[in-house]
Amino acid sequence: MQVSIIIVSYNCKKYVIECIKSILDYTKGVQYEIIVVDNNSVDNIEEDLLNTFQNILFLKSEYNGGFGYANNIGLSRAKGKYVFFLNPDTLLLNDTCKILYDFLENNTNVAAVGARVFDERHNNQISFGRFPSITQYLLEVFPLKIIPKNIKINKSSEGFISDDDVVVDVDFISGADLFAKKSVLDQIGYFDEKFFLFFEEVDLCRRMKIAGYDLKIIAEAKIIHLMGQTMKISFQKFKWFEESRYTFLKKYYSQLFILFSKAIFIFRYVFLWIKHRDNEWRQRANFIFKLK
To answer: How do residues 9-21 score in pLDDT, each as one tens digit?
Structure first.
């Protein structure tokens, strides 16, 4: 088996079905298997999947242990030389698997690759990221319009792939479409299940980098990511994100860096609370302050 494609589902049956259809439509050049891991959904996905598709390995978790937890279940059953982690709200736009497979076959020191990401209207979307830095966090908090016009902000530093890019070296690849060597995952370990949601792919890529591997975005490979349509924006989503960010920072950064980072985001939300008098901003500042 050349590629194991792992899709994690949680009450998003219609997206999973469309994702699989796009895999079947476009993937022609490699031998692959599709593994769907369900995080204890209540949408009867198993019956519909097995009635719609043949040769799908469906695995159901007894509880929702998070994104990394479910991917690890899929990894434990994967037979492929490579593993393609796909979000359920993604659609392939070309033979992405073959393109990414061929690149890794010919680049021994690259552990993982990803595709160029678009939204449903084919607008450019974030495909990768850089590991946290104080500069990055300051740019998140303060609007770009206050930066002098003579200072150029490179789009590639923001995670976007340009039309001129071919192969881009990155810190981490979007968890929406992470294509990795199974042998490297066996070497460094699978997803850290302390991350319930968010930053699990950042942590995995960080460990690949620490082990001495490179990570790349291959612009020729293209997918659509519907950008979180499987989960509504909520204060709970904010809490998951900040808890995971804090877990990641504690794992790799100094206490001084963590304190300064917290101060930056507390300032941001206090400022927004004063400006808008919306208690949600105050709640966000308070939540970050209490993180331990």
So the answer is: 999 999 999 999 9
